[in-house]
What we know:
The complex is a heterodimer of chains A (304) and B (243). Chain A is mainly alpha-helical. Chain A is built from 12 helices and 2 strands; from the N terminus they run ααααββαααααααα. In chain A, strands 1-2 form a two-stranded antiparallel sheet. In chain A, β1 (129-132) and β2 (136-139) form a beta hairpin. In chain A, α1 packs parallel to α5 (140-162) and α9 (219-233) crosses α10 (238-258). Chain B is an alpha/beta fold. Chain B has one domain (2-242): Rossmann fold (3-Layer(aba) Sandwich), CATH 3.40.50.300. In chain B, the strands form 2 sheets. In chain B, strands 6-7-8-3-9-10 form a 6-stranded mixed β-sheet, with helices on both faces. A 4-stranded antiparallel β-sheet of chain B has the order 2-1-4-5, covered by helices on one side. In chain B, α3 (93-103) runs parallel beside α5. The longest helix of chain B has 17 residues, at 164-180. The chains are: A mainly alpha (304), B alpha/beta (243). The interface between A and B is medium-sized, with 24 and 33 residues.
Amino acid sequence: MLDAIIQGILLGGYYAILAAGLSLMLGVTRFLNLAHGDLAVLAAYLIIYLVATWHMPILWAIVLMLPVMGLLGWALQAFLFARTMKGGFLLPLLTTFGLGAVIQNGIYGVFSSDVKSLGNFIGNLAWASWKLPGHISVGKLPVYIFVASVVVLVSLQLLLSFTKLGRAMRATTLDEEAAELSGIDARRIQRATVAIAMVLAGLAGAALAMRSLINPYTGPTQLIFAFEAVVIGGIGSLWGTLAGGIVLGIAQSLGAKISPQLFQLFGHLVFLAVLWWRLKGSGSLGLGNLLRSLKGQSIKGESA
Amino acid sequence: MLEVKNIQARHGLLQAVRGVSFSVAKGEVLGVIGANGAGKTTLFRAITGVHADMTGSVLLNGEDISALRPAKRVAKGLAMVPEGRRLFPDMSVRENLQVAGEHGRRGDWTLATVLDALPALKPILRSLAGNLSGGQRQAVAIGRALMTNPDFVIMDEVSLGLSPIAIEGLYESLGQLKASGKTGIVVVEQDLRRAMAFSDRIVCMLEGTITLEGASGTLTHDDITNAYFGLEPEAHERSAAHA
């Protein structure tokens, strides 16, 4: 049991990185990016390509890929997402759903449907572990990913609390029109936010490919996990995202402890229980209602 | 000079503003009055760029800013204190001011000078804006607009919902701003006597058009009341006599 809980907590670190980008984007731009998981997988494939084909050191490949993902996010917001946001609530969902399908099929077309992993390129880190009392084995890689997630979230918190960009992001989250009237170019802030979200997706993709096998159709499942972590932890609440990821990870690990087939089911059940609790008494299970129920947990800064 | 020429603005099928033109000089105070639904808020939202469904032109210091987004208009020197204050509730008072200072123009208005002009803000700098009283929120909203170093500031429904004491304090601060002569002020005010006392000129709006415009000293209370309610002078006098 303790072993499963530890594994769940560490798994939550990966979910937190993946969910932080989704949460940040949803909070600042009110845009639910259904291609978030696919973009993470795309980044993973590109890193694998650089490492496997160009024999680039894995760390260099990740460092190179993150700004590329940032630029991709900036461009997506400028030329695609911002335009669809003018078309009501449904158009962004359809657009990003379509974008996800394009990415999946693009990866399939270029890299085939073979499973891939970065595990082959990280030496014994893929299986190295520390032995704890009670026959508990803690993998080094999951610990490093968890530490990375904490570093990422602390960095984001510092960015939001103490920088000009962070304050503008929070102001835009709270009231886009008032932000514009305060001189903030909300469109530019939204582009920067999506760029940061894509960097986080790229980082999550690298972590995913290091700790497991991926294929072109892995993205939608990762999106569901990220969304579940966001709902459990609260939109825009960075530490809530980590908490949500950990709760989801523990639920999945405990499910897998009972039976490997219950890994995902337990996570979904916890998500549904939290969703029901959040929407209790609101009279509707619509997404708009969900966003309203989570609105109180907007991106927090120094004053919160 | 802020010049507004033939502004027309719609809410869907409803034409809320019908060909409004006026100008304000730097250092001048223009009082705008009008009943609810007269089109005042829509007009000023159109001037600042947040209401997009409009035609006409807005010239700031001779430059046409009609096609610019609200943030770009702020960068040119036009600020607005919106109706309802619209503060960032989960951010502190300091952050509300700071964020405007960081994205507005450089100039004489800094956090220190804004706090000197609005001393009521000093003890609440660390408070969340969402926890403030109406008067405090209005002071923060004005401070936030000043932090952008505007040449012209539009204050929509400046005293709406405030207590008499808060209104006194507010106009004391606005009086100092007016005395500095650096900023043109457009103030939307429902209190006719206060609007006449504070403003150099008065504009009265009714059903989306300007029904009266003139220097405050040359207009009588009856002139403004007639324009406000759309009454013919004789009709107003008859109703006053009847009352």
